[in-house]
């Protein structure tokens, strides 16, 4: 058994793990990442080749281990299997086929990756923020669970996440339903242009309402370059964000992980599956055991334990609770694994009227949505949703262009565009296919999933007692169902979809149910699709009895254990979760860095500029927080804290003329320009150098006793993060 | 170029309505036709393919128009079972249009279909017929999706009925 040491061990090299690793690396902290899957490839050509030559072009198709319908793979023979669309097609409820041991009553239809870079390899890139009321579902609407934080608490972290991912959007388009942005804020890049498909929706819905709420098409903020950004190219509209962007114009977590590795403080062990979290007598985690392999279906090649001061599990809403439950840790609340959620999707599609061409299969997979119905009083009654407008024709619902081409060659109607089973060939075939393809569209309603009784959730994961992977690790057993509240959201989605398609677009609706996710609600039959948005299962909260982590994503049970990713979401809202995952990861990274590297020191009142030993740079946001103590710059000013007193003196010999006398002042380097800190301030990053601190007083004694009559000192903390 | 290849290209062109100049251009850096012919030869009974090629050669020699050749080759007499040669012809059509070989005599599901190669996918004709590009292989530039694409005729040589699209 090998032994590995670092200051922080992170399980998972996906979005959350990469961001935290990078932040900690920049803070000079030694990090070890354990990743269950293979390493980040030097380039994406092999993944791309696998996509091109795969007949089953699912989101997982480019990535190892290979997924296919024939031959199928037995998950019991793989070292790091994952959920796949092939599993759903071949037998979602057969554990000999499906990695997830699904107990129903409904299938869980979302999938994920276990490779370096995680599932961001095949995310669409949607970077919507949650709307403020998403955080207060219980308070405002009497359903679900409130978050222990609100929109404003995430504001600066959202901005950092948008910078790291590289989000293209315009603030004016995104300031709806109470969402605010810092004064003067601009997204890193301008918005992505709308597609011709989007344009037809703008024309059709603008000025109309649904349930008295306006229908508004908004450009979607996207983690996709509209300008060269961070050394990566501009989007070329490959219409392939899922399964793989061929040119990495779309952000993925390998970008951040590669930066983390470049700090020289981060290393990753690939093909290393965390198998057990162990806890010492002091209730702190004291190690993470792991197993290693070389070949996806080959023998185990090693075991070990990783030891650190802090531990982070960043392995998604299924693998994280699987590890915790297999280890019997962090679960005094009984909520680990509970409230598994997705954004189950109501998919609808149709064909524009004859002669009305919209030219799909062009541009990013989605460039706009209808976001105006994400919040409203209706949330007391039924689930909210956002509507994603697709640019990929019927690729998702029927598998086009394949289905329609085969239909007109074989004289059948699997795709829906050939109801008279016409056989065509030659130029007539070309013309007909063209006529169908250029008029196709689809929309997807991402429905908020809310449990009827969130403290006794119907959806949960637990370790299987029957089925293991090749390493002998119990696989996740999934119990999944949708509440009536969620189903009612589908009911409304169906009504609006048909209204938009038939009444507003004047199009022919061809929506039908697609398995395996079906349910009936009030005598109507529905099907739902997975969004790939795995949420819940280790939620954050204010009450240790009902939540797994606190608002800092720290385990209530083990103070040196952090659980990150969208498993911490107490409720799902309607926004695609990655941006919020990234924002929360920045906050968790701050907390971890502060645990290990925050500098607490005394600043003396009777000494001029005092060095802190803290080097500032543009990559690591830092702040100074007043902790305790009082000091005095003059008898008249009296004993004050870092904010200083009421006297403002303009003498040029003062540390910062016109600032409050006795206030805490900072500068960067010996010649830096002084700036006010007070009791709390973000530190400037314009010039690198050492942070120095000083009381605001007459430094040279030109107008009195100077520093010699000062008394007292302040205790301050130089932290990581943003105010 | 072998006679078989000439006939294969001509047959394919008639079946899918794309000219031989488009399927097998004089300067052809991709060179799919011989790859496709070899692929098909290895996977269907020689008599079925030979029957198709000679039927095509005869009709072409008689100057039958390509669309009419396709109709005759694909004809299913009466209520009969679809002849093997027609099934093979349909698979050849899908091969060109989708880059995928669907074994002509297989069942409907998990049928052993395969993408012939990355190039077969990238240069399959369904995408051009959609006035688009293969998903995952765009040769266009940022923002192109906000404008009307080149016409069907510019992309495939086939004019659409009353259409659509800018002149390229």
Notes on the protein architecture:
The complex is a heterodimer of chains A (723) and B (168). Chain A is an alpha+beta fold. Helix content of chain A is 21%, strand content 22%. In chain A, a hairpin with a 5-residue loop joins strand 9 and strand 10 (285-293). In chain A, helix 1 packs parallel to helix 8 (253-262), helix 1 runs parallel beside helix 14 and helix 5 (151-165) packs across helix 14. Chain B is an all-alpha fold and 168 residues long. Chain B folds into 2 domains: 3-124, no CATH class; 130-168, no CATH class. In chain B, helix 1 (3-16) crosses helix 5 and helix 4 (46-61) packs across helix 6 (84-98). Chains A and B meet through helix 2, helix 11 and helix 12 of A and helix 1, helix 5, helix 6, strand 2 and helix 7 of B.
What's the total count of β strands of chain B?
Answer: 2
What is the oligomeric state here?
heterodimer
Distance between the termini of chain A: 44 Å
Query: Percent of residues of chain B in beta strands?
Result: under 5%
Globally, the shape of chain B reads: globular
**Poorly predicted ranges of chain A:** none
């Amino acid at each position: 058994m090998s032994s590995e040491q670092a200051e922080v061990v992170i399980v998972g090299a996906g979005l959350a793990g990469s961001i935290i690793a990078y932040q900690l690396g920049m803070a000079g902290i030694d990090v070890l990442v354990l990743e269950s899957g293979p390493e980040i490839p030097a380039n994406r050509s092999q993944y791309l080749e696998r996509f091109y030559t795969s007949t089953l072009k699912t989101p997982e198709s480019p990535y190892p281990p290979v997924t296919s319908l024939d031959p199928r793979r037995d998950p019991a023979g793989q070292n790091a299997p994952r959920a796949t669309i092939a599993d759903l097609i071949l037998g979602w409820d057969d554990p000999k086929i499906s990695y997830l041991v699904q107990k129903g009553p409904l299938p869980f239809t979302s999938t994920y990756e276990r490779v370096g870079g995680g599932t961001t390899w095949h995310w669409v890139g949607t970077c919507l923020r949650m709307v403020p009321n998403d955080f207060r579902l219980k308070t405002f609407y009497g359903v679900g669970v409130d978050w222990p934080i609100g929109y404003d608490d995430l504001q600066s972290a959202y901005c950092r996440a948008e910078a790291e991912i590289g989000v293209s959007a315009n603030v004016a388009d995104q300031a709806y339903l109470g969402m605010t942005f810092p004064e003067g804020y601009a997204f890193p890049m301008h918005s992505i242009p709308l597609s011709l498909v989007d344009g037809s929706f703008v024309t059709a819905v603008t000025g109309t309402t649904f349930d008295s709420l306006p229908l508004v098409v908004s450009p979607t903020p996207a983690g996709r370059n509209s300008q060269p950004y961070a050394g990566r190219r501009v989007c070329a509209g490959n219409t392939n964000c899922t399964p793989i962007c061929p040119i990495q114009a779309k952000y993925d977590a390998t970008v951040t992980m590669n930066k983390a590795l470049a700090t020289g403080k981060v290393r990753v062990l690939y093909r290393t599956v965390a198998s057990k979290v162990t806890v010492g007598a002091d209730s702190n985690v004291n190690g993470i055991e792991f197993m290693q392999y070389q070949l996806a279906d080959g023998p185990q090649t090693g075991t070990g334990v990783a030891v650190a001061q802090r531990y982070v599990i960043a392995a998604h809403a299924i693998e994280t609770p699987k590890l915790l439950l297999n280890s019997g840790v962090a679960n005094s609340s009984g909520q680990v694994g509970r409230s598994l959620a997705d954004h189950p999707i109501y998919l609808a599609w149709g064909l524009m009227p004859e002669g009305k061409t919209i030219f799909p299969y062009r541009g990013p997979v989605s460039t706009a949505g209808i976001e105006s119905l994400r919040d409203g009083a209706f949330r007391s009654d039924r689930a909210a949703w956002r509507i994603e407008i697709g640019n990929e024709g019927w690729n998702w619902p029927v598998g086009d262009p394949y289905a329609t081409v085969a239909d007109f060659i074989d004289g059948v109607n699997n795709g829906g565009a050939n109801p008279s089973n016409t056989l065509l060939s030659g130029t007539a075939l070309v013309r007909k296919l063209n006529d169908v393809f250029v008029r196709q569209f689809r929309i997807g309603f991402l429905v908020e999933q809310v449990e009827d009784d969130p403290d006794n959730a119907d959806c949960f994961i637990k370790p299987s007692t029957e089925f293991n992977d090749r390493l002998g690790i119990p696989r996740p057993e999934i119990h999944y169902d949708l509440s009536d509240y969620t189903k009612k959201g589908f009911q409304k989605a169906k009504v609006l979809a048909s209204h938009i398609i038939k009444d507003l677009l004047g199009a022919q609706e061809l929506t039908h149910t697609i398995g395996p996710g079906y349910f009936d609600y009030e005598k109507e039959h529905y099907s739902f699709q997975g969004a790939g948005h795995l949420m819940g299962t280790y939620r954050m909260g204010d009450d240790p009895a009902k939540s797994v982590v606190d608002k800092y994503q720290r385990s209530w049970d083990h103070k040196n254990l952090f659980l990150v990713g969208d498993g911490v979401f107490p409720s799902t809202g309607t926004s695609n979760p990655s941006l919020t995952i990234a924002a929360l990861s920045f906050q968790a990274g701050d907390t971890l860095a502060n645990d290990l590297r925050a500098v607490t020191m005394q600043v003396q009142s009777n000494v001029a500029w005092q060095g802190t030993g803290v080097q500032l740079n543009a990559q690591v946001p830092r702040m100074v927080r007043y902790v305790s103590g009082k000091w005095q710059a003059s008898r008249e000013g009296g004993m004050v804290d870092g904010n200083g007193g009421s006297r403002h003196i303009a003498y040029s010999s003062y540390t910062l003329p016109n600032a409050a006398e006795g206030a805490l002042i900072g500068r960067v380097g010996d010649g830096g320009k002084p700036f006010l800190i007070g009791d709390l301030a973000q530190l400037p990053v314009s010039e690198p150098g050492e942070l120095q601190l000083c009381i605001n007083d007459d430094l040279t004694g030109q107008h009195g006793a100077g520093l010699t009559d000062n008394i007292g000192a302040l205790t301050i903390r130089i932290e990581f993060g943003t105010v | 170029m072998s006679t078989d290849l000439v006939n294969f290209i001509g047959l394919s062109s008639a079946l899918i309505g794309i000219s031989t100049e488009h399927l097998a251009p004089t300067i052809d850096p991709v060179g799919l036709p011989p790859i496709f012919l070899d692929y098909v030869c290895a996977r269907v009974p020689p008599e079925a393919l030979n029957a198709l090629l000679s039927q095509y050669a005869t009709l072409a020699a008689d100057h039958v128009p390509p669309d009419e050749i396709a109709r005759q080759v694909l004809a299913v007499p009466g209520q009969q079972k679809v002849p093997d040669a027609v099934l093979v012809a349909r698979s050849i059509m899908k091969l060109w249009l989708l880059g995928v070989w669907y074994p002509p005599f297989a069942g409907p599901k998990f049928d052993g279909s395969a993408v012939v190669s990355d190039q077969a996918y990238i240069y399959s004709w369904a995408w051009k017929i959609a006035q688009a590009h293969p998903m995952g292989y765009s040769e266009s530039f940022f923002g192109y999706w906000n404008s009307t694409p080149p016409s069907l005729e510019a992309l495939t040589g086939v004019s659409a009925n009353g259409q659509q699209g800018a002149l390229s």
